[in-house]
Write a structure and sequence with these properties.
Layout: H1 2-13, H2 16-37, H3 44-55, H4 68-116, H5 123-136
Helix pairs in contact: 2-3, 2-4
Length: about 140
């Protein structure tokens, strides 16, 4: 549950949530258009199912596009899905790497601060610094 809250916060902070929301809205609009133009699809849920099969690139084959507009929308859905997954994944990983780098810089700064005060440090603090130095190798 905590990981979900962190992910939601990262998506919101980086505004990647707008990409996801835009994709979902696009998907529902495409499903409605497909319902209108595709002769074999008679229910909105079937149109949504077709969109899911297209954007997940599974392509179950239970519903096949015959109308030209549906084929064009299928290509657009696939491209948008690939774009959304790539961008959101990249944003989350980049944010995470930035957090790790910031932690490392803060830790390094604290280490260098202690290094400047070396004569004042206790034996325990010196041992702790030696352990951190070994980790950084």
């Amino acid at each position: 549950m905590k990981k979900l809250r962190v992910l939601r916060a990262v998506l919101k902070k980086t505004q990647a949530d707008k990409i996801i929301l835009g994709f979902v809205v696009f998907l529902f609009i495409c499903a409605f258009i497909i319902l209108l133009v595709e002769p074999d699809i008679t229910r909105y849920t079937d149109a949504l199912w077709y969109c899911y099969a297209v954007f997940s690139t599974i392509g179950f084959g239970d519903i096949v596009a015959t109308a030209f507009i549906t084929k064009v929308l299928s290509v657009l859905i696939t491209v948008y899905a690939l774009f959304a997954v790539a961008v959101v994944t990249g944003v989350v990983v980049s944010f995470y790497n930035g957090c790790v780098e910031q932690q490392f810089k803060e830790s390094k700064t604290a280490f260098l601060d202690k290094l400047q005060r070396l004569p004042e440090l206790s034996k325990e603090e010196l041992e702790e610094m030696a352990q951190k130095a070994k980790k950084w190798k």
